[in-house]
Each structure stands twice: as structure tokens, then as C-alpha cells.
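Structure, all two chains, one model.
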Amino acid sequence: MAIVFQKTKGLTEKQTHYCPGCTHGIIHRLVAESLEELGLLDKAIGVAPVGCSVFAYDYFSCDMQEASHGRAPACATGIKRVHPDSAVFTYQGDGDLASIGAAEIVHAAMRGEKFTTIFVNNAIYGMTGGQMAPTTLIGQKATTAPLGRDENHAGMPLRVSEMLATIPKAVFVERVSVHDVPNIMKAKKAIKKAFEIQMKGLGFGIVEVLSTCSTNWGKTPVEALKWLKENMIPYYPIQNFRNPEEVK
Amino acid sequence: MAKELWKGNEAIAEAAIKAGCKYFFGYPITPQNEIPEYMALKLPQEGGCFLQAESEVAAINMVYGAAGAGARVMTSSSSPGISLKQEGISYIAGAELPCVIVNIVRGGPGLGSIQPAQSDYFQATKGGGHGDYRMIVLAPASVQEAVDLVQEAFDIADQYRNPVMVMGDGMIGQMMEPVEFVEIPKRQLPEKDWATTGLRGRKEHNVINSLYIEASQCDKHNEDLFAKYAKMEETEIRCEEYNLEGAEIVFAAYGTVARIVKNAIKSLEKEGIKAGLIRPITLWPFPKANFLKAADMPNVKAFLSVEMSMGQMVEDVELSVKGKKPVYFYGKAGGAIPTPKAIVEEAKKILGGAK
């Protein structure tokens, strides 16, 4: 019988700790499949963040480092400078990348570090229990914004892709979502492209993936996907912001 | 090779390159700027990479990444910048990564001053970052010794998979002295088979990590680390003993201050007072046994720790002496330097009281 689907070699056999309905599992698979399909598993080095995906080093079968909170881009800079022929990636959440690690991601992009960042934006701190993130939407409730985010108190949610797209050496910037199958397919395409751009040595690439957190959003997995579509996409439009001439 | 005149910071950078350091990540801060400046010019010529990071925080995490990738890597800074690196140093110690960190110490606290100080002793030796960890801290007293210690620091780091700090006061970084670059005997070093290089045919993936979420596993990790630290304490202690025979008073001093104390000892000798010096070269592990041995000498009446701080190493001297003899302290802080005359006066005052 013909095999129509099988698990990618890019993931280990380890059972993930993610909540039921969490989209991290899908995004892990897309990254791992991309690496496998591009023949990069043997020279890939990933950097896990602090946050829900802190254990990503157990799930990806390639070499991995676990960075301190927000510093994955600095860590990846050190790795890539030592092994310029490797496929280096950081996998970071919104608290890690957009809050505590804002300086590191901006300067890695500014230098045009030749690695790929997978930025998982679910508008909340997951691992610590639902606190407000820089990407939490106006009015969205969080344990540290119990009445909902108030823009006069906590400011406006940060649009990371739009910000990074202003940096000349951030050559590939795209926002995708994983709330339904067609978008998952598009997300895979963007992730794969980002790795191809890295291996061509063209500069820094980031794929922002809109993601759900049904546990901390207080919704069922299906409700969470719907909430993402109806609330996150209007503020965080799905689109490509930067695409290098070489791969257009 | 003939002796050449070198500025301390530049000599430290050159020594690192001679030791095979290929990567340097740093951020500007006085009084250590000549180290990154020298690296920026010379490392690319050696096929290495210098990168000016966006902050000390980023620099130490670049060091983490590069060390985890198997490279010989160094960063340098001065006190406020070293404070910023503490989280990263704790992660490096936890993940057991070899690297060399140079701290050219200036006066504190806060922004403090830019003149020489030794007020980062606690931070360096007692774990400036969070968690239980130790780091070998080498304290040169001359530019020549800095050059020798920096070269060996990389081997020590690789041997134990541990960060090593070279801590010089601002004077060591800024003064010029004759230096001879002599190759330090190479240690037998283990393979870096743990490094994240990409699998490249390897079956199991390598992971650089300091997270042990199960308490029992984290406990075991700490036990393993401390077994390693015990080995360091057994084999890596370095110390200079000077003029101890017949000494009535024994000074404790390291770095530049030890040289000032030697001048004071000569002055005291002229006045008929015999004084000696124990100069820790490793601040951690601390040469406790040398102090205890001196405390048991009947001629020794007291110890005097002289520091460019408000009294930090003096606590280790007290612990080492175990109450057998009185331990006194004299220090200047914030960039001020103790004079030989003041040290002589202090010693005479103590001996007057002890008679």
C-alpha cells in the first residue's frame, strides 16, 4: 500500500507536553518537514526559547541549543558565525521575541544574520499562565490584564513583522497563520522559503506564525481557531512584507 | 622572543589569539576598550570573527551560542557590563560550556568610576548570577602574568567545560609593561563531542541546555557540577607565598595591590618589622590551605587583607584562618589606590596592638 503521510524524520519520538489543541505541534511539524525536504536535517542547529516551546530541543531531531529568555537571536548569531554552512533557526514565542528579546531580534535583523526565525504569536504568555504579552490585543483578557488590555495603560499591541520589515537586511518577512488547512499549507511554503533564503546567504528571514492558546484564552480548540481568524488577523494581517529579488 | 612593551588590554587580546581564540563578542565599556578594538583588527586576519554586540547581554549569549557550537570564544567587559552578563554566565555554567570572560574591574557600585578597583570579588567568586555554580577566577598581578593566565584560561575552560574569568583591576588593563609571549604547555583536552555542529552523520542529536525540569534531575545535575568543582579545587589552586619565614604579619592581597604590598613589606623590613604576603592567583578556588598553614606558624601574629574594595576577600581570609589569628582589613574603594605608606602605618598599628 502506498504511504500517503508519515511523520517527518525532523521530529523525535518524544511525546510533546503541549496542551490539547495547541498549534505548536503543527508549527513544529512544518519546520521539521521543511528541513527534511530541503535536505538540511544533517546540518541544522535550532535554538529553543523560554516559554511554551522551551522543550523544543527534545522534539526536533537536529542539534539544538536552549537559550535564555529572549536571547535566542544572540545565541543563533554565535552558532551561525561558527558554522556558517549550517541551517540555523530560532523558534520563539511572543513574550520571548517581542518583549524581553526585542533588542536581540532587531539587531540580528539589522546585521542581516543569516539564520531563520520562526516567531509564534499567540498574543499571550502561555507557559507562565496567561499573562499579557506585547502582542495581546486591545480588550483581550489576560491574568495581568484582568479587565482586558487597555491601550491607555499598556499601549498598543506590537506588530513585529511590520517593524522588522523596515530593516534593510531583514530580507524575508512574512506573516502566516495555522488556523485552517489552506493557511497551514501557506505557512509551510513560507517557512521552507525562509530556509532556502538562509542557505542562499541572502540575509535574515522571519516567519511570524499566528497561533492559538486555547488553554489561556479560555476557549475550546475549535473556538480558539475561530477567535484567531476573527480577532487576530484583522490586526495582524496575513501577508508577505519582504521578499528578496533573488527568489521572487 | 625578546621582551616587548605591551599595554595590558592589548596584551590580553593578543594572548587570547595566541591561545587559539577565534571568536570574540563584546560591547564597549571603559577601561577595557582596547581588548575589543584589538580583536576587531586582528581576529579577522586570523580567520576568526569579532562582532560588536548590541549589549553585554547579547554578547554573553553570543558567547553561549559559539561555545555550544564548539568554538574557542571570549568576551570582555568591565564591572557594570559584567553585571549585565551574569545571567548568561549562570546559563553557561549550567550548560557546562567553556569560555573565557575578562573583567577589567572599575569602581562601583552603580556607574561608579572608571579607575581601577577590586570590588567585583564577591560577584566573581561567590556566583554573581543565580543558582549554585562556581567559576575559576584568575587574578594576574602584572601584564606578563595576565598574558600567561589568559593563554591557560582557555585550556582550563575546555578541560572542565566551565567558564573561566580573568579578573584584572583597571591598572592591569591600562598600564604598559614588558611582556614575553611564551607558549604555555598545552593540556590534554577532551574531544568536544557534545558540541552542536549539526549532526553531520552523527546518530544522536546534541543538545546544549541548562534546564532540568524534574527536581531530582536538577538535584543530580547540581551534584555532578559540584563533583567537578571539587576536582577544580583539588588541582587548580594557585598562589604566591612571599617572605613568610619569620613574618610577624602576613598580608593578603591580589592583583595590583599585591605589588604595592611588596613595596610596603620592604619599607617595614627597613624599620625592623618582618612581614610576608600570600597572594591568591586563583580567587576561586581560594588558597585556603596556604592561609591555614601560615596561621599555624608561631611567628605570625596577625593577617592584614589589603584590597581595592571595602573588604571582600578578607572574608575568605577569615574563613581560611579559622580564628587562629586575628584578621584585619585595609582598603580603598571607588578607584582610589592604597599607598605603601598607608599600608605600613596600618601594619604598625596592628602589631602595636598585638604585642
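The first helix of chain B runs from residue 8 to 18.
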